[in-house]
Q: What sequence folds into this?
């Protein structure tokens, strides 16, 4: 594994295995679920890695725990900081609580109360700022400067990527005969870790990224070889409205077969299918891989596919099929 | 085991074990789930037997499969009939399809299209009748007479009770240190089977029934020793608006410690808790045991409790917390 300071450093299989040992007491080894009924709809044999059942309700607990537990004692005591108002913020708060160190989570002042509460319940401090990228970054830098806290980036960090890769490690261990693995792609931390782990353990298995057509920056970046920007966009899978970093793009270009996209309607249909058939509460981003499988049936017909269901944190008062 | 024709005949542990072997290829051995967060709310250690993940979305597949697979060849070929428009109807349709025999399900003509479709997708024939008990029973008798189909009652049948008891059998095998088991109670088939299996396998474990306060006929019957009637009532747990039979009352009086009740508000809160914290889609009846545990915290404080989550078939367009 290259030095963490290197902007292109990526974890290898050994680093992902080390992460697995490091976080073992702090995260669940989540089950792999299947549904004959959904298999019938997809025309494939799907093995859902249930990260919505992970601590904090998302795979993010893996990367956050690995990063926090990797800090040396001197760093750790000064705490950690991040600027994600979503699942990474809660995961970092959880990881810091488990290590008994302080955590700060910078959030835009318009962040929903439920998201703030979700971070505070693990004892982290919420620092509100204006709802701009610049304000967010400067608030983060301020906490780092004032408190000496270490910034834990949501995805552009080899320790985080190694942690996220442990989900695929378990999946490939638990379902040895897979033909393909598909994971959602926002900033690319999960997809990078998934691809590195899967290809190292089972080179025969093809890895796919999944994203909303409305936020197809990863598919475009994959094609062009550059980190492509994303125009302001609205997708129900709001967790995936993030562009790659050069680091995650490098991992994805090296190990991923294709990034496939899906419509908003397919995301809602897949999410509802997971609720109705599998009885699982999955957030829109977590349903994106299934949505892609349903929209690209012929490509995956008859295959055994591992599907990373990334999270289950969804507002139950505003489910997307709710009749007005 | 007494003759099935005996109105008070009940299965014993041997019959439940035989049911388990008989249905093994046709139903899931469902997982046992837990949630540290829900344990914190309940002040107890809860082990959820996940029958919402069962084939057809409810424990009913167990009893229906056991009854259908218990028929001799001559009976089987003429098919089966029942008059449940809910989970038992779909379960019987499923069981009949698995054995390759015809099934008729009598439903009131006002039964929702989704319930009719749920039965038809397993290949059963829906026979509509007027929405009265008399019409339902005479339609059933007519099918039995015309086709020679065997009536499979939703709960007042030792073969059905034996099948339902296999859920508790698995639960007690999988979680050996339980203090108590709690199951919802409608007609009492699940609770009877649960109580017989649990007490025979683990006499130290106390068994509780759970029902809505608005449909507390089982609690009253348990107290009086007679099958008490239920006035027309509205409860969100519509699957539990059924009175006991002398058979199920006898089993419950012999083996159950108490039947506890809960408010409608507690049912909605428990259901939402299962969605939000455990990420599990559970129908109101399936949330009633947790609702009872939450309303009777002191009674169960610190105990290890097995909780039978009976089903997950809930209309996603009309979730009870949906804001108007």
A:
């Amino acid at each position: 594994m290259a030095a963490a300071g290197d902007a292109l450093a990526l974890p290898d299989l050994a680093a992902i295995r080390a992460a697995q040992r490091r976080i073992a007491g702090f995260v669940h080894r989540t089950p792999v679920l299947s549904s004959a009924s959904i298999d019938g709809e997809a025309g494939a044999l799907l093995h859902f890695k249930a990260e919505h059942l992970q601590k904090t309700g998302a795979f993010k607990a893996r990367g956050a725990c690995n990063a926090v537990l990797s800090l040396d004692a001197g760093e750790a005591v000064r705490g950690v900081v991040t600027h994600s108002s979503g699942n990474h913020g809660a995961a970092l708060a959880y990881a810091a609580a488990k290590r008994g160190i302080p955590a700060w989570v910078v959030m835009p002042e318009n962040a929903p109360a439920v998201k703030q509460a979700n971070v505070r319940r693990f004892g982290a401090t919420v620092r509100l700022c204006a709802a701009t990228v610049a304000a967010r970054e400067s608030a983060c830098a301020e906490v780092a400067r004032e408190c000496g806290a270490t910034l834990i980036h949501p995805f552009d960090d080899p320790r985080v990527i190694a942690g996220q890769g442990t989900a695929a490690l378990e999946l490939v261990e638990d379902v040895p005969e897979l033909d393909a693995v598909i994971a959602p792609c926002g900033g690319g931390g999960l997809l990078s870790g998934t691809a590195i782990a899967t290809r190292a353990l089972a080179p025969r298995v093809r890895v796919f990224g999944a994203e909303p057509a409305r936020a197809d920056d990863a598919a475009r970046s994959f094609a062009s070889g550059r980190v492509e920007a994303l125009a302001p966009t609205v997708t129900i899978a709001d967790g995936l409205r993030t562009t790659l970093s050069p680091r995650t793009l490098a991992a994805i270009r090296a190990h991923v077969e294709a990034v496939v996209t899906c419509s908003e309607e397919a995301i809602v249909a897949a999410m509802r299918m997971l609720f109705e058939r599998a009885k699982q509460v999955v957030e829109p981003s977590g349903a994106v891989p299934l949505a892609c499988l349903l929209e690209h049936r012929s490509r995956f017909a008859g295959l055994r596919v591992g599907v990373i269901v990334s999270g289950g944190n969804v507002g139950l008062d505003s489910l997307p099929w709710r009749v007005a």
